[in-house]
Structures are given as structure tokens and as C-alpha cells.
Specification:
Layout (H helix, E strand, L loop, with lengths): L30 H13 L8 H13 L27
Main location: cytoplasm
GO cellular component, one term: mitochondrial intermembrane space
Keywords: Cytoplasm, Disulfide bond
């Protein structure tokens, strides 16, 4: 008696998740930003709400160097930290 089960001819093709899995920073391009963020966390009892600016800078570095997909910062929860364009007075 065979113990193997055949569930059809479809083959499973793994694919990475849309979010949550990022390439490693092998060349340390964003290491200074990561270290600044980690220091902020240590200095503030790991309260990440006090280190949002540092985490934003780290994510910006990763996006600029294609270590993660580019996303609008507003979509990543940094709407309040995004520089809004100044409106010029109408003439």
C-alpha cells in the first residue's frame, strides 16, 4: 500500500509576501539609519512612538536603495511627518 497522496497535478509555486519580507542590507547602506533608530529605542525604553522620525528615515533609506518597495510615507503611517509642500500666495 502506498502512503503517498496525490492531490492533483497543480504544482505549488511559492512567492514572497507582498509586505513584511525585505532583502537584507548586505552592504550596510542603511546601517547608520538603523543604528540611530536602535539607539533611540534603547534610550527611550523601546517606546517606538518616540522614535518615529528615525524609523521613517530608515525606511526612506531602504526605499531609495531598492531594499524594499517604494510606498508613500502616508501609507506607512507617517502622514504627520511628511513635509507638506508650501503653498505660494495667489497673485
Amino acid at each position: 500500500m502506498s502512503t503517498a497522496m496525490n492531490f492533483g497535478s497543480k504544482t505549488f509555486k511559492p512567492r514572497p509576501p507582498d509586505k513584511g519580507s525585505f532583502p537584507l542590507d548586505h552592504f550596510g547602506e542603511c546601517k547608520p539609519f538603523k543604528e540611530k533608530f536602535m539607539k533611540c529605542l534603547r534610550d527611550n525604553g523601546h517606546d517606538n512612538s518616540l522614535c518615529r522620525r528615525q524609523s521613517k528615515e530608515y525606511l526612506e533609506c531602504r526605499m531609495e536603495r531598492q531594499l524594499m518597495a517604494k510606498e508613500p510615507l502616508e501609507k506607512l503611517g507617517y502622514k504627520d511627518l511628511v513635509d507638506t509642500p508650501t503653498q505660494e500666495p495667489e497673485s
